Amino acid sequence: MATNHNSGSAWIKKPRNIATILSIIPGLGQFYNRRFLKGISLLIVTVSFLITTWNYIDIGIWGLFTLGTIPRDHHSIQLLIQGLISLIILGFGIAIYLYNLKDARSDAIARENHRSNPTLIQGMAAFYNNGFPYFMILPGLLMLLFIVVVPLMFMLALAFTDYNQYNAPPRHLLSWVGLNNFVDLANVGIWKDTFLSVFTWTVVWTVVATSFQIILGLFLALLVNDKRIKFKRTIRTILILPWAVPAFVSILIFSALFNPTFGAINRDILSQFETMIPWLSDPFWAKVALIMIQTWLGFPFVFALFTGVLQSVPQDMYEAADVDGGSRLQKFRHITLPHVLFATAPLLIMQYAGNFNNFNIIYLFNEGNPAVRGQNAGGTDILISWVYKLTFETNNYNMAAAITIIMGIIISVFAFFQFRKTASFKEEGRY
């Protein structure tokens, strides 16, 4: 018992432990270490932080858990946003408090080792060398938190509430419903059918449209790169022209061209073969039109990308292949394609991710229509355009947020695993 008592007393008497215990009240540990200016500064910062933010954080955390208790007097959305901001402010406060503990303990350890405390000038010099970069990025970090992180947190939170057109504040208060919105997407009839239909088309649209634009861009780049082709600069300029025209202008023009009544495709071209295709009223043909339009809009970028990469393929590799009797197909398969994919794989993956969320072409072409019986999404809606309709047309904010989370997870997982499989990712940092 005496041994335990003595060891406990020794632990408490150590300067590092005394300083840590005193730092429960910010600044006292620094006073113990004779760092009076730092102690006063931390004490003033702590008191100022508590005075200015205590009421805001108190109401914010309360509102985050309850989302209000009195309809019309309490606004659930305002309380939710205040609660999320309170979490960030509280995080800054906790960071300052932890710094106070760590700083006091570090100075006490130096005191145990009989190292003198740095002077004010030395402390300022150390701050400039070690902390100045963090101090300079602080404004950007704050902007990032309140412009990017808070909206993302708000969207995530909405996915677990019952916020829709029939239950909207301030007339009604919101409630936390857990995973009910995700369960409805998997089980409830209209949500389940619509989600499966839209998700399937989104995957098909992403894979087919992106693959077509990549294949077409690669094919044209290989043709233009052929030594027998003349006027290469002129041909490249012409093929890149669709990229120079703003995409929304091209989409609106194509929407008029594919109009089944007065569009030039039906009236001037297909009418010669006594054929009229319902491009805008039939979901299948509308999807075909969208894939063709995206192929047209997307291939110039891929063409320009591949054209530049093909210029860097070492010619001696082709000469060696000719000596070995390699065919054109073998040279393409074993030299050209690996070289091109190694250099462009990350950008090609971004093409797939971009088309997965390509809202512009879907909405500008025919607003995701035509309507489909038994679904609350159009026949050509992809997930992002469906989310737009749920948000701005039917006010199903909770379901829109739930679908957005699913979209984010899908894209993140796809991009992560695809990047890890690319040769350029594996080679990064090796040299």
UniProtKB/TrEMBL annotation:
Q: Which family does it belong to?
A: Belongs to the binding-protein-dependent transport system permease family. MalFG subfamily.
Query: What species is this protein from?
Result: Virgibacillus massiliensis
Q: Where is the signal peptide?
A: none
Q: What is its main location?
A: membrane
Q: Listed GO molecular functions?
A: ABC-type maltose transporter activity
Annotated membrane topology is: Multi-pass membrane protein
Cross-referenced Pfam families: BPD_transp_1
Give the superkingdom in one word: Bacteria
Q: What does this protein do?
A: Part of the ABC transporter complex MalEFGK involved in maltose/maltodextrin import. Probably responsible for the translocation of the substrate across the membrane.
Biological process (GO) annotations held by this record are:
maltodextrin transmembrane transport
Q: List the protein's name.
A: Maltose/maltodextrin transport system permease protein
Q: What are the alphabetically sorted keywords of the record?
A: Cell membrane, Membrane, Sugar transport, Transmembrane, Transmembrane helix, Transport
Cited PROSITE patterns: ABC_TM1
Mind telling me which GO cellular component terms the entry cites?
maltose transport complex
Q: Which PANTHER family match?
A: MALTOSE/MALTODEXTRIN TRANSPORT SYSTEM PERMEASE PROTEIN MALF, MALTOSE_MALTODEXTRIN TRANSPORT SYSTEM PERMEASE PROTEIN MALF
Give TM regions: 36-57, 77-99, 143-161, 203-225, 237-258, 284-310, 335-354, 397-417
Q: Tell me which InterPro entries the record gives.
A: MetI-like, MetI-like_sf
Q: Where is the ABC transmembrane type-1 domain?
A: 199-418
Subcellular localization is given as: Cell membrane
